[in-house]
């Protein structure tokens, strides 16, 4: 027989049975919502076609001349940090289809601890991605920027920054418009 205890947190009851927690109340409705139950939100591409097309053009210009594998690593890391499941699914799928190993894809979230999976240039790009994505938490430290500048020429570094800007924008669009992971609506 499993013992059950109930705790009150932020107006919700949490029933604990053994190692399992069951949330009841307002949070349960949010946690239990599946993709089919979501309220439809604005279709950004249809509602703001000029802005959408401009962003696609900016994204294409940012990628120009960058290593496609690096592009996916940057997009994956930013999507992880922003908790954008839609973009994370899309970019891990794209990277896998392009030949990226599952082993490296699993290590992107812990790239600093798994440094041997990535080149020095990739690590510099991932560090810059984190700093720019989390810019409100301390800006872009000189050391991070200088490390990236040692591995990327000025034009390539500018495109890398533009890529980081675009994936952060795509993450915000996908999250705020309720894109469903796995649907890959491009």
Per-chain topology:
Layout: E1 4-9, E2 12-17, E3 20-24, H1 26-31, H2 44-47, H3 49-63, H4 68-81, H5 85-97, H6 102-107, H7 120-133, H8 142-151, H9 154-176
Antiparallel strand pairs: 1-2, 2-3
Helix pairs in contact: 3-9, 4-5, 4-7, 4-9, 7-8, 7-9
How does this structure look, described?
With 186 residues, the protein is mainly alpha-helical. The protein is 56% helix and 9% strand. The chain contains 9 helices and 3 strands; from the N terminus they run βββααααααααα. Strands 1-2-3 form a 3-stranded antiparallel sheet. β2 and β3 form a beta hairpin. The radius of gyration is 20 Å and the shape is globular. The termini are far apart. About 12% of the residues have low confidence.
Sheet with most strands: strand arrangement: 1-2-3
Query: How would you state the average pLDDT, rounded?
Result: 86
Determine the strand fraction and express it as a percent band.
5-15%
Helix count, DSSP H or I runs of 4 or more residues: 9
Unreliable stretches, pLDDT < 50, 5 or more residues? 4-25
Ends distance: 50 Å
Radius of gyration: 20 Å
Shape: globular
How many β-strand runs?
3
- Largest sheet, strands/sense/barrel: 3 strands, antiparallel
**Percent helix among the residues?**
55-70%
> Could you state the order of secondary-structure elements as H and E?
EEEHHHHHHHHH
Class of secondary structure makeup: mainly alpha
